[in-house]
Specification:
Elements lengths: L7 E5 L2 H4 L45 H15 L3 E5 L2 H4 L10 H16 L3 E7 L5 H7 L6 H16 L6 E5 L11 H8 L7 H29 L4 E7 L3 E3 L4 H14 L1 H8 L4 H10 L7 H9 L4 E5 L4 E3 L16 E2 L5 E2 L5 E2 L1 H15 L3 E5 L17 H19 L5 E4 L22 E3 L11 E3 L1 H11 L7
Parallel strand pairs: 1-2, 1-13, 2-3, 3-4, 4-5, 5-7, 6-8, 7-12, 12-13
Antiparallel strand pairs: 8-9, 10-11, 14-15
Helix pairs in contact: 2-4, 6-8, 8-12, 13-14
Bound molecules: 6-O-phosphono-beta-D-glucopyranose.
Keywords: Glycosidase, Hydrolase
Pfam families: Glyco_hydro_1
Family: Belongs to the glycosyl hydrolase 1 family.
Length: about 475
């Protein structure tokens, strides 16, 4: 009973949200570098290149580039067994289509992973976490272009070879399923490097094509990775969002199933090595059958993933009063509020039981180990006059979720590899570009306008999580 020995307790971040140093040591411009700061309910602007005078929060972020030794020391003090981060694609291939990688970028991650190992912290690495080289968007149309598969593969293989003795746990694309909301500029640009047009049908067709190239790129990477080091564990990474019907009306039930099919097929392909029937029939019926070759189908079978890495933030509730089941395209269009769950300051449903439900759904569907690589509460923190930060709301959120995780493990038999809460140190929000939407156990002194000393300090949750790890998840009080 309880979490297994060697359970990977840690925390998760992404390069572009904390490193800063956006143009240091040969790094190129990524899609995150052309996104301005938004606000709660205000989307980030995606500019055509970097425009002087605009506020691009990822350019400096929390300057982990210069602070990583200090930060990893703090993670070690909390007892981290692992640290999930990504490799900034543009540090390694600044434009994405170079013949040779940038040595200074490779060296940075060598040093970073060495620093982790110094404390017995295992790096867990995402290859593409919303960091595509902007040049690939401009010159190739992102993953709308088959050529980008080769660029991604080259990046992946370069990283696998360089870090084959330093990194064992990998994921290919962060939240590859986010683009199921294909009318959202931010999600399409970060997932696929696609800039949208005005016609929703065309956008949907573009998404199915780009996503296909991504699952092929992912499968090729898995296949090559296993050749480079057979001990590698390479996972998918999905933003698993269980879909609830708004009522027991059979139309709502059918709609919830449709929404699940529209949203959760990406990992089906990555785990089974083939498309589910419902997707094949949908894209055929809609007339936007993408370019899928017989060779692609072989590749998909050969490059299936080893585990399910997933983020869990919330569930989604859908109602057939908004969209009829057979008319459903983007599941978000059918979303309604769930009266049984509270929401965060950013209006995200808070549903710990949904996490247990999600873990069971994925275990039943995939028969693979799970790894919770993101979970957490974005909230405004207040620094007291003595410098302390009493984030009891964050502790309550994480405790409630871990209680459900424990039930999934103890009572339902779910095989769980680890737990890495999101934003273990405060960083730039991906969705809004804000610093004030904080997730961390460690506070970073910086505001939404970019002012602050960047000083790190421990929140109450730091000590709570330290205790959780020390007791291997037994002491959640
Ligand atoms: C996930 C992403 O979607 O959620 C992270 O993988 C992101 O990059 C996290 O930061 C939280 O979202 P947000 O918009 O609050 O930063």
């Amino acid at each position: 009973m309880g979490f297994k020995d060697g359970f990977l307790w840690g925390g998760a971040v992404a390069a572009h949200q904390l490193e800063g140093g956006w143009d240091r040591d040969g790094k190129g411009v990524s899609v995150a570098d052309v996104m301005t700061a938004g606000a709660n309910g205000v989307p980030r602007e995606i500019t055509k290149g970097v425009i002087a005078g605009k506020n691009y929060p990822n350019h400096e972020a929390i300057d982990f580039y210069d602070h990583y030794k200090e930060d990893i020391k703090l993670f070690a003090e909390m007892g981290f067994k692992c640290f999930r981060t990504s490799i900034g694609w543009t540090r390694i291939f600044p434009n994405g289509d170079e013949a040779e990688p940038n040595e200074a970028g490779l060296k940075f991650y060598d040093d970073l992973f060495d620093e982790c190992h110094k404390y017995g912290i295992e790096p867990v690495v995402t290859l593409a976490h919303f960091e595509m080289p902007y040049h690939l968007v401009e010159a190739y149309g992102g993953f709308g272009n088959r050529k980008v598969i080769d660029f991604f593969l080259k990046f992946a293989v370069t990283c696998f070879k360089r870090y084959k003795d330093k990194v064992k746990y990998w994921m290919t694309f962060n939240e590859i399923d986010n683009q199921s909301s294909f009318n959202n500029d931010f999600l399409m640009c970060t997932n696929s490097g696609i800039l949208l047009g005005d016609d929703p049908k065309e956008n949907e067709a573009k998404m199915y094509q780009a996503a296909h190239y991504e699952v092929v790129a992912s499968a090729l990477a898995v296949k090559e990775g296993h050749k480079i080091n057979p001990d590698f564990k390479i996972g998918t990474m999905i933003n698993f969002t269980p879909i609830y019907p708004a009522s027991s009306d059979p139309e709502d039930i059918l709609l919830a199933q449709r929404a699940d099919q529209r949203r959760n097929w990406f990992s089906d392909v990555q785990v089974w090595g083939e498309y589910p029937r419902n997707v094949e029939s949908y894209i055929e019926r809609e007339g936007f059958r993408p370019d899928i070759t017989a060779e692609d189908r072989v590749v998909l079978k050969e490059g299936t993933v080893d585990y399910i890495g997933f983020s869990y933030y919330h569930t989604m509730t859908v109602s057939a009063k908004k969209v009829a089941p057979d008319d459903l395209t983007d599941p978000r269009l059918a979303e309604v509020k769930n009266p049984f769950v509270k929401v965060s300051e950013w209006d995200w449903p808070i549903d710990p039981v949904g996490l247990r439900y999600a873990m069971n759904l994925m275990t039943d569907r995939y028969h693979l180990p799970l790894f919770i690589v993101e979970n957490g509460l974005g909230a405004v923190d207040k620094v007291e006059s003595d410098g302390s930060i009493h984030d009891d709301y964050r502790i309550a959120y994480l405790r409630a979720h871990l209680q459900e995780v424990k039930k999934a493990v103890d009572l339902d038999g779910v095989d769980l590899m680890g737990y890495t809460p999101w934003g273990c140190i405060d960083l730039v929000s991906a969705g809004t570009g804000q610093m004030s939407k904080r997730y961390g156990f460690i506070y970073v002194d910086k505001d939404d306008e970019g002012n602050g000393t960047l000083k790190r300090s421990k929140k109450d949750s730091f000590y709570w999580y330290q205790k959780v790890i020390k007791s291997n998840g037994e002491d959640l009080d």
